[in-house]
């Protein structure tokens, strides 16, 4: 930028293309901007405000709605803007990410936990936590799963890298915990489901958009989930399943759990184990999340539904 802050309202409007009316509305409704005040009470926008607005403009140009963008929060938008400024262009970034992913897969196959940690530490130092989870941990976990299905990866290797990834994501969830008490969700795996990395990644991105997560782990009995709902009154429950037979076995119990909960509470079940279509006996409030969406996209969709439901935080 040829100009540096602080910026008056007219200047920031000219630089971003957003009208003063819109800027004031976004400041008031979403808290996206944090301008100071001059001696006469006029708004003085900072360089960080400009970075946030540039990121908002980029997301709007991609077709994202302002409500969806605002759900990310100022901190996330500013972090993404800074990350984009220091990250190499896409053509340069792809080989770097691919190198790191390959290194982690090879380290897992060699059962070298130190090498896995060093690879993750190096990536964490060079990029945002969101990129580490979305561009490194998630694709490496999928690749390890694919190799295991082919018989090219041992159970020990799969357990090792999943354990390391789990520890990392749990720490990120704790660090990202929102300050506001609501909305809140319970996250867990269905009874009989031991693969928890997927629900942990979703939980991380959900927490990044301002939703508090009470993570209850894998293989959670439905009765324990029901009790947790009665004690904490969450806005939603997120459950994960990777094996279709596990979902079929728990289907009746899921129906009872949903029907016995408060009418404003929402339930989401996602993973490789969900059926392709809703069954006739499945409650309307039970949402099936099919594989294909990235963890950030899934988290945004969940957060948007929680906030717009009847009786929800935005009602």
Describe this structure in words.
The protein is α/β, with parallel strands linked by helices and 315 residues long. Helix content is 59%, strand content 9%. It has helices at residues 9-16, 20-30, 47-61, 66-86, 90-109, 113-126, 129-150, 155-175, 197-208, 222-232, 244-259, 295-308, and strands at residues 36-37, 43-44, 184-189, 212-215, 236-240, 266-270, 286-289. Strands 4-3-5-6-7 form a 5-stranded parallel sheet, sandwiched between helices. Strands 1-2 form a two-stranded antiparallel sheet. The longest helix is centred in the middle third of the chain and has 22 residues, at 129-150. It starts with 8 loop residues before the first helix and ends in a 7-residue tail after the last helix.
Write the topology of this structure:
Elements: H1 9-16, H2 20-30, E1 36-37, E2 43-44, H3 47-61, H4 66-86, H5 90-109, H6 113-126, H7 129-150, H8 155-175, E3 184-189, H9 197-208, E4 212-215, H10 222-232, E5 236-240, H11 244-259, E6 266-270, E7 286-289, H12 295-308
Parallel strand pairs: 3-4, 3-5, 5-6, 6-7
Antiparallel strand pairs: 1-2
Helix pairs in contact: 3-4, 4-12, 5-6, 5-7, 7-8, 7-9, 8-9, 9-12
